[in-house]
C-alpha cells in the first residue's frame, strides 16, 4: 500500500510540474495500477514454509507477469489476492486426480482486474498430457479436451467475501474433488465447478464481467448459494461434457445475469433453482443463447434459460436460437420442483429454431416452449408456440408448430441461423470465426425490448403483488459499483446481448 501511495504522490508531482511548465497543453496522465498488499514477485506458486507447509497467498500479481500454480492455493479470510491487468496464470494440472488438479480456495477475496486492452488468463499449458481444444472438435464430448477438467477452479467457501473476475479468460476447469468434497456439497471424484460459492452467514459477492469461460467438465458457475451476483457481458462456450449448465445458481441468490452469450452448452445456458422455503430471485435479460442443450439427453432438462424450485425474477429481452428448448418456467422437471411464479415476470423474448422437426438422435428436437410447464407465450414474445388451455395445476398444454420457423430469425450480422440448423450443425459447439451476433437493420429484435425509456409493451415491467420483485427491482442494486463493485448494464430496447447501440457485450469472435 505504501508503494501505491508513493506512486500517486509521484504522479501528482509530475502533473503539477507539467501544468506549471506548459499551461497551454493538456497533460494525459494515466491512472496508476492498483496494488493491494505486497507485490508478488515469485512466479512459481504456492510457496512453502520451512516446515513444508503451503503458505496461503495474498497480495498483488503484477501486470505483464506469468505465474505458475503447481498445487492448491488458499486465500485466507480477510486477505485478498489481486491481479493487475495483463496477468497470465498457468495452472499445472492434468485432471487425473485431486492432487494433480490445483484449485483456488477462496476464504477471503480474489479480484482479477483485467481490462479490454490487457486481459487476464487462468488456463493450462499445452503438453502431451494436456492437449488443448480446437475448432476441429465440433461435437465430440468424449475426446474434446475442452471437457477434460484439468484444474479445480475457484472454490469459495463459507467465509468467502468476494470473487470478481473482469476481462479474464477462465479455461479447462473441472478437476475432481478429493477428501474435502463434503465441505463443498460434493462427493470425492465429482468434477469441481469453475466457480462455486456458499457463504455460511450473510452473502458472498460474485461479479463476473466481460470475461470468457471456456471448457468445463460439468457446470461452469455451479450451484452457488447465499450470494449476490452480477454476471454481465460474458461469453460461455463449450461448457459441460454430457451434462452441466453454463450458470447454475441455487438457494438464496439475488442479482442479475445480462448480455451474456451462451454457445454450445451441454444443458442450459442460464439456470436458477432454489430449494423449498428459500428464495432465489435473479433477473435474466438481454442474453443471447445459441446451440444449447443437445449434449444432455435426459428428458425435461431444457436447453436455454430455466428456472426451477422457488426461483423467480424478471426474464426479458433474451434471444434463443437453435437451442433444444426455449425459456422454461418449470412446473416440474426430473430434479426440480415448481418455480416461484409469484415472483416471476417474463416477456419480450425471441426464440428461433431452424426447423420444428426431429433433428436426428434421441430426443434431438428444437421446440419453442416445453409443454406442461408454467411457461406461456406472452403477447410480446416472438416464437412459434401456440398456447393451450391452462390446466388445474396452472400449466400450459400448448403445442409447437412443426413448420419451418425462420420467420423468427433475429437476423444476426454474421451468423446464418438456417445454415447452422441444417443436418447436425445445431450441435456444433464451436463459435464460428468472425461470427457477429449484433443485429442487422430490419431485425425483428430491434426496438421491442423493455427499457427505461419504453412505454406500453416496452416499458419496464411492474408486478406490484410480487413482494420480492418489488423489493429487489429490475435491474437490482444489491452490489455497489466501482473498481471492486459491479458495472451493471440496464435492459436495452433491442433484444439480445449485442444491441445496436453497442452498449452490451463487447466481445469479438
Sum this structure up briefly.
The chain is mostly beta strands. It has 2 helices and 35 strands. The strands form 6 sheets. It has an 11-stranded parallel sheet with strand order 1-3-6-9-12-15-18-21-24-27-30.
Description of the structure:
- The chain is mainly β and 509 residues long.
- Helix content is 5%, strand content 26%.
- It is built from two helices and 35 strands.
- It has helices at 2-21, 467-472, and strands at 39-40, 44-45, 59-61, 66-69, 73-75, 80-83, 88-91, 104-106, 109-113, 120-123, 154-156, 162-166, 168-173, 195-197, 204-209, 212-216, 221-224, 227-232, 235-239, 247-249, 253-258, 261-263, 270-272, 280-285, 288-290, 305-307, 311-316, 319-321, 328-329, 344-347, 350-352, 385-386, 399-400, 412-414, 436-439.
- The protein has an eleven-stranded parallel sheet. An eleven-stranded parallel sheet has the order 2-4-7-10-13-16-19-22-25-28-31, with no helix packed on it. A five-stranded parallel sheet has the order 17-20-23-26-29, with no helix packed on it.
- The longest helix has 20 residues, at 2-21.
- The chain is globular.
- The two termini are 38 Å apart.
Q: Could you give the distance between the termini? A: 38 Å
Percent helix among the residues?
under 10%
Strand runs, count: 35
Query: Describe the biggest sheet?
Result: 11 strands, parallel
Alpha plus pi helix count: 2
Low-pLDDT residue intervals, each spanning 5 or more residues: 1-26, 358-363
**Structural class by sheet pairing and helices:** mainly beta
Range of strand content: 25-35%
Identify the strand order in the major beta sheet. 1-3-6-9-12-15-18-21-24-27-30
Radius of gyration: 23 Å
Outline: globular
Report the mean per-residue pLDDT as an integer: 92
Amino acid at each position: 500500500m505504501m508503494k501505491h501511495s508513493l506512486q500517486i504522490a509521484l504522479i501528482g508531482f509530475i502533473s503539477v510540474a507539467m501544468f506549471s511548465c506548459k499551461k497551454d497543453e493538456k497533460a494525459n496522465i494515466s491512472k496508476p495500477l492498483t496494488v493491494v498488499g505486497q507485490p508478488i514477485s515469485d512466479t512459481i506458486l504456492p510457496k512453502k514454509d520451512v516446515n513444508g507447509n503451503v503458505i496461503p497467498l495474498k497480495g498483488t500479481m503484477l501486470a505483464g507477469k506469468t505465474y505458475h500454480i503447481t498445487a492448491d492455493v488458499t486465500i485466507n479470510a480477510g486477505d485478498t489476492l489481486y491481479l493487475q491487468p495483463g496477468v497470465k496464470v498457468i495452472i499445472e494440472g492434468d485432471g487425473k486426480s485431486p492432487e494433480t488438479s490445483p484449485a483456488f480456495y477462496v476464504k477471503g477475496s480474489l479480484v482479477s482486474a483485467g481490462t479490454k486492452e490487457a486481459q487476464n488468463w487462468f488456463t493450462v499449458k499445452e503438453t502431451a498430457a494436456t492437449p488443448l481444444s480446437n475448432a476441429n472438435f465440433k461435437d465430440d464430448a468424449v475426446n474434446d479436451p475442452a471437457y477434460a477438467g484439468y484444474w479445480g477452479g475457484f472454490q469459495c467457501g463459507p467465509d468467502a467475501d468476494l470473487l470478481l473476475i473482469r476481462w479474464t479468460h477462465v479455461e479447462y476447469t473441472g478437476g475432481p474433488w478429493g477428501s474435502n468434497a463434503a465441505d463443498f456439497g460434493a462427493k470425492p471424484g465429482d468434477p469441481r465447478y469453475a466457480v462455486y460459492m456458499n457463504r455460511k452467514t450473510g452473502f458472498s459477492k460474485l461479479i463476473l464481467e466481460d470475461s470468457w469461460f471456456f471448457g468445463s467438465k460439468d457446470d461452469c458457475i455451479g450451484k452457488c448459494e447465499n450470494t449476490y451476483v452480477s454476471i454481465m457481458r460474458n461469453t460461455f462456450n463449450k461448457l459441460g461434457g454430457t451434462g452441466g449448465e453454463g450458470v447454475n445458481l441455487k438457494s438464496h441468490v439475488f442479482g442479475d445475469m445480462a448480455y451474456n452469450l451462451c454457445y454450445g452448452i451441454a444443458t442450459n445456458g442460464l439456470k436458477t433453482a432454489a430449494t423449498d422455503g428459500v428464495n432465489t430471485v435473479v433477473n435474466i435479460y438481454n442474453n443471447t443463447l445459441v446451440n444449447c442443450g443437445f449434449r444432455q439427453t435426459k428428458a425435461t432438462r431444457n436447453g436455454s434459460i430455466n428456472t426451477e424450485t422457488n426461483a423467480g425474477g424478471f426474464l426479458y429481452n433474451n434471444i434463443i436460437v437453435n437451442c433444444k428448448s426455449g425459456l422454461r418456467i418449470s412446473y416440474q422437471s426430473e430434479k426440480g420442483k415448481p418455480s416461484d411464479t409469484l415472483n416471476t415476470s417474463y416477456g419480450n423474448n425471441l426464440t428461433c429454431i431452424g426447423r420444428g422437426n426431429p433433428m436426428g438422435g434421441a430426443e434431438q428436437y428444437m421446440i419453442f416452449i416445453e409443454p406442461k410447464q408454467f411457461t406461456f407465450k406472452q403477447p410480446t414474445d416472438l416464437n412459434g408456440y401456440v398456447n393451450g388451455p391452462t390446466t388445474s395445476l396452472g400449466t400450459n398444454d400448448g403445442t409447437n408448430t412443426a413448420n419451418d420457423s425462420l420467420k423468427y430469425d433475429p437476423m444476426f450480422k454474421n451468423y446464418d441461423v438456417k445454415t447452422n440448423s441444417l443436418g447436425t450443425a445445431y450441435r456444433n459447439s464451436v463459435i464460428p470465426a468472425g461470427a457477429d451476433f449484433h443485429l442487422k437493420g430490419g431485425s425483428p429484435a430491434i426496438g421491442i425490448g423493455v427499457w427505461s425509456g419504453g412505454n406500453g409493451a416496452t416499458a419496464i415491467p411492474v408486478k406490484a403483488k410480487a413482494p420480492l420483485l418489488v423489493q429487489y427491482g429490475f435491474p437490482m442494486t444489491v452490489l455497489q459499483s466501482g473498481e471492486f463493485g459491479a458495472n451493471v448494464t440496464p435492459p436495452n430496447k433491442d433484444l439480445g446481448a449485442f444491441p445496436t447501440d453497442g452498449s452490451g457485450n463487447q466481445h469479438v469472435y
